[in-house]
Amino acid sequence: MLKEFKDFIAKGNVMDMAVGIIIGAAFTAIVGSLVADLINPIISLFMGGVDFAGLYATLDGSTHASISAAEEAGAAVFAYGRFIMAIINFLIIAFVVFLLVKAVNKTKKKEAPAPEAPKGPSELDILMEIRDSLKK
Length: 136
Prior knowledge:
Non-ribosomal Peptide Synthetase Peptidyl Carrier Protein, Chain A, two-stranded antiparallel ribbon, 70% helix, elongated
């Protein structure tokens, strides 16, 4: 059973998947920073200083200075701003992945060898056939 497990782990697909997951986690951190540190301030600037992550409503009608204060007070919080940020993160990640896949596909097309011309009779072969036909 241990040998079978080693064989399973050593397969290329499993190793490729593990590398993909690790790179995906690192990529998520990069995109998170991109959104939080670069895109959110720009969006906030155009939206009059609104911080989406701080948008919330308490379900019990109580008022609090911030979403963290409402959560600490134990109020039921409807954090729609965090949801908006999750949508923005998703769209950015999906767009970047789209660009990566597009670049990889473009590279694969360049690397693919051109299909060979169909092999047929050469000009000499055709001329010989014509000659033989004329002899008959």
